[in-house]
Specification:
The structure is a single chain. The chain is mainly alpha-helical and 159 residues long. It has one domain. Helices cover 58% and strands 0% of the residues. The protein is built from seven helices and no strands.
Length: 159
Amino acid sequence: MATGSCPDCGAPGVDGREGCQALFDETFGPAHPELAAVRDLAFDAYCMQHLERYCRSAKSYAAHLTRLCCGLEYRGEPRLYTAIQKWLNGSVLLEKPALLPFLGKLTIADAPAVGTAEARREFARVWAESVWAAYASRHGLAHGWLEAAAKMAGRGISV
């Protein structure tokens, strides 16, 4: 039985970072093709709660924050996801903002352990909304980055 909490997101009973990652992989990993539609959203929520591993650089922070915004506010628009990737692969200069003390009220430990795919898809959305709410002070930054990505991509992408 797992006992330790995750030092990044605070998830209880996951045996630290490794256990937290294992729980995420077990819940939303490739073994669950029926969750493909929410995997990106869940992954970006997870990354924004595990900054030390997934958001070390300003570009990785920007990637996950803007993708989280895209997943929630733009229904995971594929052209916008592509624009974000292309923008960040360019020579864009970014400054990583200060880390926030609170990263959301839900963690991967709140996911349904054994549940239907529909329950896991719903959890991914609610969890991502919780993380996005915790980043409310960064919404303007995320929107500005999304606008820059869309502008660079052109082709009728607007935010």
